[in-house]
Amino acid sequence: MNSARTLVLFNYDWDRLGFGRWRREFPFDDAGFDLFSFPSNMRLAGFDLQRLVDRLAAQAARRGWQAVTSTHEQFGALAAALLAERLGWPGTPVAAVLACQHKRHARRVLQEIAPDANTGFDLLSSRYGEPVPHDIAYPVFVKPVKAAFSVLARTVRNREELAALVRFSPWERWVIRHLVEPFERIARARLPEAGSAHRMLLEQPVAAPQYNLDGYVFGGELRPLGFVESAMYPDTQAFMRFGYPCALPAAGQAKALDVAVRFLRAVGFTHGLFNLEFFYDADRDRLTVIEFNARMASQFSDLYQRVDGIDLHRFALELAHGRDPALLPRAPSTAGVAASFVYRSFDPAARPPMPTAARARALAERFPDALLFSFAKTAGQIARDFKWLGSYRYGILHLGGRDEADLRARCAAASALLGWPAPCAHADGPVDDPGRQGRGLALAPVPAAAPAIVAMGVAR
Fold first, then answer.
1. What is residue 247's three-state secondary structure?
2. Residue 435 neighbours by CB under 8 Å, 6+ apart
3. CA–CA separation, 422 vs 92, rounded Å?
4. Which residues, at least 6 apart from 56, have a Cβ–Cβ distance to it below 8 Å?
5. Which of 42, 158, 193, 316 has a Cα at 20 to 30 A from 270?
6. Domains of the chain in sequence order
7. pLDDT tens across 219-229, in order?
8. In whole angstroms, what separates CA 386 from the centre of its chain?
């Protein structure tokens, strides 16, 4: 057992389970609050990242903390970087986290070092509450300069749709301001050239399958872990499932690694887990970056554990203590393929049933490997989800299978036990939306095209 205590920030959902698996080997304490539950989220009022870091730094010696980690995009990753810097612990540099999380600044960096992997972009000239300008070419993809969970990110086809998207009630403006301002205060002091994060970003839409590269940097070297494919509900921009491994062509893998090396080196990312979201058009051999995340994609940790026998949450703990996760032994694989299935409603009036205790027991008995999250929400919360996300996510189910056919059959059977329509039932193939669209999940693995280590100091 590791005698050094670790501080885990904003430890909820997948992280609560993932870090919890290692509590005996890595005793840890939690700090932070849950943005999605009441009354925990009331702490958003008056929240200040620097004050949080100051308070935690003052407690560190007394509590015996010697490391910090977080996979939380909104506040945790930046808070962990600030605290690690303050106390001299291993961590991702603050400047690198800021550069990744400020979406406009990240686009500017990408334009300098890998313009072929960028898409057209510009700031929406109007601010919240102001009339939308008339000189915008549609369709256009819109997203906040600083956000998480795909909030307010979508393709709009005309001025009316854009005006509706950025028309906020006083309560919505209050929430947005308090979500962004903690980041804004740090960025204003540490990355002033990026400009304000209280803005919306316009991007040229891309129509191509969507993927993720997961990996980490240690000692100046990028270590790729794998590629996950993202599939959307047909004719929507809403995630339906994430599958690992996936049939990303070797050329796409090589391009993703090359861009990751160049971008992470440019922003000074020298330590920690990362996730790169990107499109890849195999017909044109064209890769387009969506965004870099300066933290683990915790929803995927369970998928890697099932298929490869590696636990990304354990990797995060090792990195927090300055150790290379490559030295860890692999656990036996329990599945040939694995997926995270996302259950959504596209009807604002629908109220999908939450699993009863009997249904949950039946699922656990028939599928002991299943990992289930259900998200019961009030009518007001559902209405907000539709405004901000365009749908209501009411459940997530993780399963493994021997192969693609077995996984699909298990998903269909598990969904029937839950009383939910199966995400795996949708046909594969491209969809028609001209914006951010994926295709159906292709779960057949392909040989890894990437080396185990990529030296980030090598010129490209």
1. coil
2. 139, 141, 154, 155, 205, 206, 207, 237
3. 39
4. 7, 31, 65, 68, 79, 83
5. 193
6. 5-89 (3.40.50), 120-203 (3.30.1490), 210-455 (3.30.470.20)
7. 989 999 999 99
8. 20
Which burial class, exposed, middle or buried, applies to 182 when counting CB atoms under 10 A from its CB (0-12, 13-18, 19+)? buried
Q: Which amino acid is at 164?
A: A
Count CB-CB contacts under 10 A for residue 428.
12
User: If 0-12 CB within 10 Å is exposed, 13-18 middle and 19+ buried, where does residue 458 land?
Assistant: exposed
CA distances from 81 to 73, 87, 244, 342, 384 (A): 12, 10, 29, 30, 31
Distance in angstroms (rounded) separating the CA atoms of residues 121 and 115: 12
Q: Residue 300 half-sphere exposure, CB side, CA atoms within 13 Å?
A: 28
Q: Please count the CA atoms within 13 angstroms of the CA of 73 that sit on its side-chain side.
A: 19
Is the pTM higher than 0.85?
yes
**Residue 209 to residue 230: CA distance in whole angstroms:** 8
The per-residue pLDDT for range 401-422, each reduced to its tens digit, is 999 999 999 999 999 999 999 9
